[in-house]
Amino acid sequence: MPRRRVKVRIRGVRKEDQAFVLGYCRDTFDWGDYIDNVWNDWQSDGEFLVCEDRAPADSSPPRPVGICHVHMSPGQAWIEGIRVHPQHRRRGIATRLVREAEQMTLRPPPTTTTDDGLASAMIIDTKNESSLAMARRLEYEITSTWTYHKVSPRRPDAGARHKITELRDLDRAAYPHFVREWRWFETRRLGAGGVSSEGPAAATDTPRFVRSDGKALEGGGSSSQATVSVLAAGKYLGGSGRTLYATLYPGTDPAGIDEMITFLAGAAASESYVSVSVFTLGGLPPGCREWTRSPFEFYLTRKRLA
Questions:
Q1: Nearest to 131 by CA among 50, 182, 68
Q2: 110 and 160 belong to one structural domain
Q3: Are residues 109 and 46 in the same domain?
Q4: Of 126, 146, 152, 219, which shows the fewest CB atoms inside 10 Å?
């Protein structure tokens, strides 16, 4: 039986779309979905798109069968939250949404454009073949592979002291990105910062750069032994509260990585964060003890727009 021709329109989301959309955004992942927790924020920023089916098979009114959100930042449009109703998949709706998101970033005023131009980016699960195929068709390139780890906040043992030092001279070529609220940003667009040494420190919305095993960076030591993290606080997408996001560039020393994770868990506990989301560039070196739960991998993809 041939598929009916889909007549769609891309528009901004409306409050009345919420019930229908959340009806097919309940079991997106094994644990559910986060769209219900971000709906109000996304709707208020004016960058929340809906693909409306203008010619449903029955006599019902037009329905929002696909959604997508765009987050604007200097030089980058971050595309996230692509969802399509199960009965409307494989009909080009996700492609239409991504293309509209790209065009939206190019419309005046070009507030996100910098001297380096403008690009769009998104992450895709390494096992999501259909989304990867769509990204290739739309000329997105895989730039790196990242692993997500969940770490539980935990206060360190009494008297524990960690060799965590402030990193003021950040090599932005070596550490090009940091993650906040599941969005990848370029560190080269930021000024240097850091947290105080020795033990947990307050985390803020401003990204801070820290390192463990500082001796490896001194006296001509190999920087490959250093474990570097970029800390940024953000909303907990799975519910109420806040999450400490850490972007970890692990070196080859398992002890340094364990040291950093202990520090991150303690920092989250001291500031009453509900969770720690750690993102590592690539995998972890052999010999690291199991300090995270449920790791899975994503590709960071990017496309130059202007």
A1: 68
A2: no
A3: yes
A4: 219
- Kindly state whether residues 176 and 242 are assigned to the same domain: yes
Same domain assignment for residues 221 and 295: yes
Q: How distant, in Å, are the alpha carbons of 8, 41, 161, 236, 280 from that of 259?
A: 52, 36, 10, 24, 15
Q: How far is CA 289 from CA 115, 193, 261, in A?
A: 43, 29, 11
| pLDDT category of residue 201 using cuts at 50, 70 and 90 | very low
Does residue 69 have a pLDDT over 70?
Answer: yes
Domain termination site, one of 99, 117, 135: 117
Give tens-digit pLDDT for 28-43.
888 889 999 999 999 9
Q: Is the pTM higher than 0.90?
A: no
Whether 78 and 186 share a structural domain: no
Three-state SS across 57-123? Answer: CCCCCCEEEEEEEEEEECCEEEEEEEEECHHHCCCCHHHHHHHHHHHHHHCCCCCCCECCECEEEEE
In terms of domains, do 157 and 286 share one?
yes
Domain for residue 1, yes or no?
no
Q: Give strand ranges (E) for 126-207.
A: 141-151, 164-166, 177-180, 183-186
Tokens of 81: 């939250």
3-class secondary structure for 222-278?
CHHHCEEEEEEEEECCCCCCEEEEEEEECCCCHHHHHHHHHHHHHHHHHCCCCEEEE
How many CB atoms are located within 10 Å of the residue 292 CB? 17
